[in-house]
């Protein structure tokens, strides 16, 4: 009876708290396949999707494939979603990449311009070009030329597979970098929510706000049907541009420095790089496109759009508030009522953005450490009835609480963004 109530609560959480924020598709990171010694045979289909010949029936996440045998569940354990979902157009892919690299952390760009001046604006454009080139190079690594000279064939599905193929044993370092970046993103969402709420209600300290905002995030522990986080609107960022445009009379170009503050500039470069890190999602995104030959144009368009938007947003935001620019630009708004409204919208957006990196961490950990005791250190997280085991649910809750603990330990948004950007970028 208790197990049934837990299952009902899990299904209700998926349907009412999360699925309203998700679109169907198969191009987010959590749809990648596990990496172990068993390499699935991948065949390209006319519609641009992959058919997994060996692992198609061993996916406990995919509710449409409940006929998997118990032996295969024990062998492969908790792996990613099926790739049989609908493919996406190039425009949809570009929109998703653009949203991924805009993110919540554009609120810190005006402060980056305050510290770095024109050098920071140049970095916003230059890093976009570098990330575009590295994104293309990383996707090229997933392909090999066919021996018969009939073009290229995609033979890898993840960066770890590529690393293991090039140098056995290197994949674990790639996995560590992926987990670090995803965990840091989760931590930053909590830090950002706490900072914004403290700006609205300074009588309550930031640590208390972080703990309060973590309470609704505990529901993500029940999430086992995450497809893709929907494209969250950038209306809050656009509203900042409108505010700056209204206040154009106070712009002071003389406030922009030519020589940056070299003591803080390395941190600012890390912030800029962190804002362009969409590479972790590119393999599954490219694999879901209807026409993969358009991937290069799609990636270029999205990075050009992001570079223009970020440079203008950082410049206009700083010119509006000059030396009064704070680390989160919304806290610089002079109208307290409007600032509270904008901050609350940003907090809501941050909380809705948390499930994607969190669930990607769950997927990575499950694929690499909970694949069954025969092929990994720990047993699978799902029982024979395809339900999440109680101890696995407890581990998911502990993961959320760990991100809260880290946020309380290092509650500095810009500094943490800079550190992670320089480390994983």
What does this structure look like?
By secondary structure, the chain is mainly alpha-helical. It has one domain (2-424): Up-down Bundle (Sodium/glucose cotransporter). The chain has helices spanning 2-18, 70-76, 90-102, 109-140, 159-166, 171-200, 206-217, 235-246, 265-274, 282-287, 295-321, 336-353, 355-369, 390-409, 413-424, and strands spanning 22-23, 42-44, 50-52, 143-145, 152-154, 228-229. It has a two-stranded antiparallel sheet with strand order 1-6. A two-stranded antiparallel ribbon has the order 2-3. The longest helix has 32 residues, at 109-140.
Task: Write the SSE topology.
Layout: H1 2-18, E1 22-23, E2 42-44, E3 50-52, H2 70-76, H3 90-102, H4 109-140, E4 143-145, E5 152-154, H5 159-166, H6 171-200, H7 206-217, E6 228-229, H8 235-246, H9 265-274, H10 282-287, H11 295-321, H12 336-353, H13 355-369, H14 390-409, H15 413-424
Antiparallel strand pairs: 1-6, 2-3, 4-5
Helix pairs in contact: 3-11, 4-9, 4-11, 5-6, 6-7, 6-12, 6-13, 6-14, 6-15, 7-14, 8-11, 9-15
* Class from secondary-structure proportions: mainly alpha
**Main beta-sheet strand count, sense and barrel state:** 2 strands, antiparallel
- Give the strand tally: 6
Shape-level CATH architecture? Up-down Bundle
Shape: globular
Write down the secondary-structure element order: HEEEHHHEEHHHEHHHHHHHH
Give the termini separation: 48 Å
Helical content band:
55-70%
């Amino acid at each position: 009876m208790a197990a049934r109530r837990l299952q009902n609560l899990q299904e209700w959480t998926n349907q009412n708290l999360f699925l309203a924020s998700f679109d169907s598709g198969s191009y987010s990171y959590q749809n990648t396949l596990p990496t172990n010694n068993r390499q699935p045979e991948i065949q390209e289909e006319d519609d641009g999707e992959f058919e997994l010949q060996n692992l198609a029936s061993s996916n406990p996440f995919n509710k449409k494939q409940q006929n998997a045998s118990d032996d295969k569940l024990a062998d492969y354990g908790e792996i990613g979603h099926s790739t049989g979902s609908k493919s996406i157009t190039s425009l949809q892919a570009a929109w998703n990449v653009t949203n991924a690299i805009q993110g919540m952390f554009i609120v810190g760009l005006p402060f980056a311009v305050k510290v770095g001046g024109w050098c920071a604006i140049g970095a916003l454009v230059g890093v976009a070009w570098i990330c575009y080139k590295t994104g293309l190079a990383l996707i090229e690594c997933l392909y090999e030329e066919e021996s018969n000279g009939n073009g290229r064939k995609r033979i890898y599905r993840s960066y770890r597979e590529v690393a293991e193929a090039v140098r056995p044993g290197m994949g674990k370092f790639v996995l560590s970098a992926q987990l670090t970046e995803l965990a840091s993103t989760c931590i930053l969402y909590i830090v950002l929510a706490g900072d914004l709420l403290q700006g609205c209600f300074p009588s309550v300290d930031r640590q208390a706000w972080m703990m309060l905002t973590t309470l609704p995030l505990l529901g993500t522990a029940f999430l086992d049907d995450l497809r893709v986080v929907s494209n969250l609107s950038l209306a809050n960022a656009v509203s900042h541009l409108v505010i700056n445009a209204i206040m154009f009379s106070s712009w002071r170009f003389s406030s922009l420095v030519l020589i940056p503050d070299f003591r803080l500039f390395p941190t600012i470069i890390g912030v800029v790089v962190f804002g362009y890190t969409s590479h972790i999602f590119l393999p599954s995104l490219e694999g879901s496109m209807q026409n993969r030959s358009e991937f290069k144009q799609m990636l270029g368009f999205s990075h050009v759009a992001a570079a223009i938007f970020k440079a203008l947003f950082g410049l206009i935001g700083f010119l509006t508030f000059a030396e009064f620019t704070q680390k989160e630009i919304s806290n610089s708004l002079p109208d307290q009522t409007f600032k509270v409204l904008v901050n609350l919208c940003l907090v809501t957006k941050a909380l809705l953005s948390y499930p994607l990196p969190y669930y990607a961490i769950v997927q990575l950990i499950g694929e690499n450490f909970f694949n069954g005791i025969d092929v990994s250190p720990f047993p699978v997280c799902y029982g024979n009835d395809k339900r999440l085991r109680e101890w696995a649910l407890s581990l998911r809750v502990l993961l959320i609480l760990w991100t809260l603990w880290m946020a309380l330990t290092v509650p500095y948004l810009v500094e943490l963004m800079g550190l992670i950007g320089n480390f994983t970028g």
